[in-house]
Amino acid sequence: MTYRYSRAPDHDAVLEETIGYARELRPHLILHTGDLFDAFRPGYAEMARGIDALQELAAIAPVVVVAGNHDSPALFRLFNRLQGEDSRIRFVDQARLPQEGGVLEFPGMGDEVIRLAPLPFVHANRMVERFEDPSTWMATYADRIHLIEDALGRGLREGYNPSRDILLFAAHLYVTGARFCGSERPLHVTDAYGCRLERLPQVSHAAFGHIHRPQALPSTVVSGRYAGSPICLDYGEEGEQKEVVIVEAEPGRPATVTSQPLSGGRRLRTLIGTLEEIRSQAPSVGNALCRVTVRTDTPTENLSELVRELCPKATLVDVNEDCAATRIEVVEAAKADADAEPSFRDLFRTYLAEQGTRGADAKRVLKGFEQLFEAADEEAPLGLPDLDQLLAKEGSK
Q1: DSSP states of 294-308 as a string?
Q2: Which H or E element spans position 268?
Q3: Is 391 helix (H, G, I), strand (E, B) or coil?
Q4: What proportions of the chain, in percent to the nearest 5, are helix, strand and coil?
Q5: Does the chain have fewer CB atoms within 10 Å around its N or its C terminus?
Q6: In this structure, is the dihedral angle defined by the CA atoms of residues 214, 43, 61 and 221, taken in order, positive or negative?
Q7: Residue of 64, 60, 75 whose CA lies nearest to 33
Q8: Per-residue pLDDT tens for 77-89?
Q9: What does the alpha-carbon distance between residue 122 and residue 231 come to, in Å, rounded to a whole number?
Q10: Residue ranges in the chain assigned as alpha helix (H)
């Protein structure tokens, strides 16, 4: 949902586009690096859409889905049970020791073997069984993650044949230095959840999820990339080019990493300006999801309808009016009064400057407030011309 508007059509479009690329490229392995769903308890329609798409992808190549911070590990375990052991879709709910299924193997080209170490999202307040004990509980989040990465790295190297094996790492983590959009869950992209790249397993490619902005890992230690979100999820991602990541890897050689742009789904657009300025932008808007701020001199009736006429194909998720007449300028007090306690009039003037009014002339509102305040202070009866005129009209009906 974006401003209460469903994004289902956009997800459907980008999933169809992604599946089309997979059919064309015929990869040996397909990775989803987390946040398959937006909530721990997704609705039936969301689950059906996700599973249907994964099944179509699994008809092309084995699929591995790594649990993200939005995903439910319990739901992932249930999916695995329902599918059975022979399924070509593997849901990875938690990190496991290499000898207990923490390193997965898949056939590559010819006699090549793809060896994958997946690392789902790790919550800072939960101990990871088998990797940790009470002595590690007070360690930093980054150090705890490095314990897991070191163990997975050793598992990848055990029995490694450089002429046959291709090593991959897939994780749902925030690495320090990655550029985020602001649409991620704020807590999970802070320093409390930051980890460093120095101790990543030495692999041909590290596939990362969690950050919504597509980008290379901020380091040359290991070749890797954040795939990012498939569509712009909110206006913090406006203008980003979304993508799928294509990795061509061979045993004993650096991987070649390219990205395929995604165009499925409606764009997000922010339009700000006068009606004439928005009119000039309208030809480029198309069917975008638009939030619009119209700058006017006086309150304008039927503003949403006017904007809709200018952008007939767009979905207007929010239309606001920035009206000069409903704002009031704050005049700075003289320096001599800088430390004085502000009066009620000063406070109300500041409020009008920040919030404006709902269509009324701000200067008239301020004048009415002053008259009310003075009358209350003097305990005198008050007659407001505007209100008296309105009451007179009502009485004559």
Answers
A1: EEESS--TTHHHHHH
A2: strand 268-273
A3: helix
A4: 35, 20, 45
A5: C
A6: positive
A7: 64
A8: 999 999 988 999 9
A9: 25
A10: 8-25, 44-58, 73-83, 141-157, 275-281, 303-310, 344-355, 362-378, 385-396
